[in-house]
Amino acid sequence: MKSKVIKILEGVLEVKVSLESSSNALDEWDSLNHVRIILEIEEVFNIKIHFNDISKLKSVNAIVSYLEKSI
Q1: How far apart are CA 68 and CA 25, in angstroms?
Q2: CA atoms within 13 A on the CB side of 10
Q3: Which of 7, 12, 13, 23 could form a disulfide with 58 if both were Cys (CB 3.0 to 4.6 A apart)?
């Protein structure tokens, strides 16, 4: 799962990403790309991320933790 999330982010952001990467550390991870990341995660993992949770998913670790609890 971690490798899938990293692959999604690297595809959207077009930069190298690690588990410790976050929107604060990557200039490429802006609000538009955040929406793209969320949409790609929903499609790849076939889930619907609740609107209130979208703003909390600002790091690779946060996304992985969310998916582990949701799937």
Answers
A1: 23
A2: 10
A3: 23
Distance CA(25)–CA(53), nearest Å, equals 20
Longest dimension (CA), the chain: 29
Per-residue pLDDT of the chain (71 residues; tens, 9 = 90+): 999 999 999 999 999 999 999 999 999 999 999 999 999 999 999 999 999 999 999 999 999 999 999 98
Domains of the chain: 2-70 (1.10.1200.10)
Q: How far is CA 15 from CA 29, 37, 67, in A?
A: 10, 13, 22
Q: Which long-range contacts (CB under 8 A, 24 or more apart) does 24-28 make?
A: 24/58
pTM: 0.95
